Amino acid sequence: MNDFLQYAKTKLKSDWRLILIYCLVYPLWGLGMNWFGTSLEIARFTYWWQIITCYILYMVPISLLLRNLPFHMQYAYGLVAMGFLEFGGYALETSHAYPNNLMDQFFGERTFALAMALFFALYFPAGNWLVGKIYHTLLKK
Question: Domain of 28?
């Protein structure tokens, strides 16, 4: 446990500009995905502020912990993190899945949360790549 805490401490103590970029990119991404899910009647957040709690308070720290790991490790750990988030969101009814949505029709209604977790786990490697590109482009010396 001490090893993990040391690892987490070093990863979370990042350049404030990097964290700022995460905190700008992720909620914009979240707003876009919530709009997309609502427009296509797939799923949506019940409350607007969930963009902040999910995308900034939950996903940014996890992204910081996972950055610089290989893609497959970011995806695997991200899948665990998103599994808990998706399960909690639908169990607590803070996320709303539209009945008979496109994913239900394609995969079946009992696999909806799993399909969402499998998809959204890609956020971690993709988000780390995107934020890294923005960070290095803006802060080239």
Answer: 16-138
Tell me the whole-structure pTM to 2 decimals.
0.90
Q: Is residue 7 part of a domain?
A: no
Residue 2 has pLDDT above 90, yes or no: no
Tell me the average pLDDT across 91-95. Answer: 92
- Looking at the 3D structure of the chain, how many domains does it have? 1
Q: Is 93 part of a structural domain of the chain?
A: yes
Q: What is the pLDDT of residue 67?
A: 94
Length of the chain: 141
